[in-house]
C-alpha cells in the first residue's frame, strides 16, 4: 500500500445549483497538498419546477455525479469528508428525497447551508488561495443565487445572498437561446433590483480589490480573451463588448468561442447580464478573477477543525 493511501485525506464536495465540485487533499508534513480537483455540470437548478420541487431527472443527474465522485476517494483509508449543498437544495421542497438517496452513495451528512454561510465559505476559500487587501468586494454568480461579500484580509464584514443565478436567469430570459437586446435588458433589470437591496456598506466610491469567484466569471473572462486583448481584469467596457458580440450573433448556436467549455455557452448571456448589472449598480471600475471559491473554503475549514481538535487534545 502506498504512502498516499496511509496519509490523512480531506474530501470537500460542493453541490452547487449549476456544478458539483470535488476536491481531494492530503496532509503532508503539516501542510495541505491538493491531489485532485473535478467538476461536473449537473444543473440541479434546471430541474426546479414552478412549485419548487426538484424533478426526477435533476435528482438522477446529481446522484450519478455523487456516484462518480465517491469512486475517487472510496479506497482511501483515512478520510475526512464534508458535503455542502447550496441554493437549489435550500429551496427544493423535496430535498429530503435527494438527501436520502445520496446517503446510500456517500455515507456522510449533506449540509444545506444558508446563503450567508455560503458567502462566508466562498470568502474563506478565496482568503486561503490568494493575498487580499484590507477592503475587498467579492461576487460569486452561481446557478441559482449570487453571493456578494465585503471583507478584510482575514475576515468578512458583510454577507449577502441574492435571488439571481445564471441557470435560473437562463430559464427566465434566454430559454429559447435567442440573444436579443430586449432579453439582456430584462435580465439586467431583474438583477439590478436584486443588487439595489444591498446595504450601504456595498456602495463605496472605489474598492482596492474586486474579485469575481467561480465558473460564471471565469467563463466570461475566457470568452473575452477570444474577442478582445483582455489579459487579467474585467471592466464594464469589455463586458459591453462581449454583450455586443452576443447580440450580434443572435443565438447561442452561433457562438464561436473556441476556448470556452461548450456547456458554459448557454449560461454566458444570463451570467453576463448579472455581472453588468453588478458593475453598474455598484459603480465597479475593475474586477479580477478570484483564485479560490466555495470548495476551497469547505476544504480548508475541514482542515482547520482537525488542527483545532488536535490542539485541544494536546492541552488536555
From TrEMBL:
Sequence ranges assigned to domain Ppx/GppA phosphatase N-terminal in this UniProt record: 23-305
Gene3D superfamilies: 3.30.420.40, Exopolyphosphatase. Domain 2
SUPFAM superfamilies according to UniProt: Actin-like ATPase domain (SSF53067)
InterPro entries the record matches: ATPase_NBD, GppA/Ppx_hydrolase, Ppx_GppA_N
Matches recorded under CDD domains: ASKHA_NBD_EcPPX-GppA-like
Top-level taxon: Bacteria
UniProt cross-references to PANTHER family, sorted A to Z: EXOPOLYPHOSPHATASE
Protein name: Ppx/GppA family phosphatase
Protein's organism: Shewanella phaeophyticola
Amino acid at each position: 500500500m502506498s504512502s498516499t493511501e496511509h496519509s490523512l485525506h480531506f474530501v470537500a464536495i460542493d453541490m452547487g445549483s449549476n456544478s458539483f465540485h470535488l476536491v481531494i487533499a492530503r496532509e503532508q508534513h503539516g501542510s495541505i497538498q491538493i491531489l485532485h480537483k473535478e467538476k461536473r455540470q449537473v444543473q440541479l437548478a434546471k430541474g426546479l419546477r414552478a412549485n419548487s420541487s426538484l424533478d426526477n431527472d435533476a435528482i438522477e443527474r446529481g446522484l450519478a455525479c455523487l456516484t462518480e465522485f465517491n469512486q475517487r476517494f472510496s479506497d482511501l483509508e483515512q478520510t475526512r469528508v464534508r458535503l455542502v449543498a447550496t441554493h437549489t437544495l435550500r429551496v427544493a421542497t423535496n430535498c429530503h428525497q435527494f438527501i436520502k438517496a445520496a446517503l446510500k452513495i456517500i455515507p456522510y451528512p449533506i449540509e444545506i447551508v444558508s446563503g450567508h454561510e455560503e458567502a462566508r465559505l466562498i470568502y474563506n476559500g478565496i482568503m486561503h488561495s490568494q493575498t487580499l487587501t484590507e477592503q475587498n468586494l467579492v461576487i460569486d454568480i452561481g446557478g441559482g443565487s449570487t453571493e456578494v461579500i465585503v471583507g478584510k484580509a482575514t475576515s468578512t464584514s458583510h454577507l449577502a445572498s441574492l435571488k439571481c443565478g445564471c441557470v435560473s436567469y437562463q430559464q427566465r430570459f434566454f430559454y429559447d437561446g435567442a440573444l436579443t437586446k430586449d432579453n439582456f435588458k430584462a435580465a439586467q433589470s431583474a438583477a439590478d433590483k436584486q443588487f439595489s437591496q444591498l446595504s450601504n456598506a456595498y456602495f463605496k466610491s472605489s474598492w482596492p480589490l474586486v474579485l469575481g469567484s467561480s465558473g460564471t466569471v471565469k467563463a466570461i473572462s475566457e470568452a473575452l480573451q477570444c474577442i478582445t486583448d483582455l489579459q487579467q481584469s474585467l471592466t464594464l467596457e469589455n463586458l459591453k463588448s462581449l454583450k455586443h458580440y452576443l447580440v450580434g450573433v443572435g443565438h447561442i448556436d452561433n457562438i464561436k468561442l473556441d476556448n470556452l467549455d461548450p456547456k458554459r455557452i448557454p449560461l454566458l448571456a444570463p451570467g453576463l447580464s448579472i455581472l453588468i448589472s453588478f458593475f453598474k449598480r455598484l459603480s465597479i471600475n475593475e474586477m479580477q478573477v478570484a483564485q479560490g471559491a466555495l470548495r476551497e473554503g469547505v476544504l480548508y475549514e475541514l482542515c482547520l477543525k482537525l488542527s483545532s481538535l488536535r490542539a485541544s487534545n494536546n492541552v488536555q
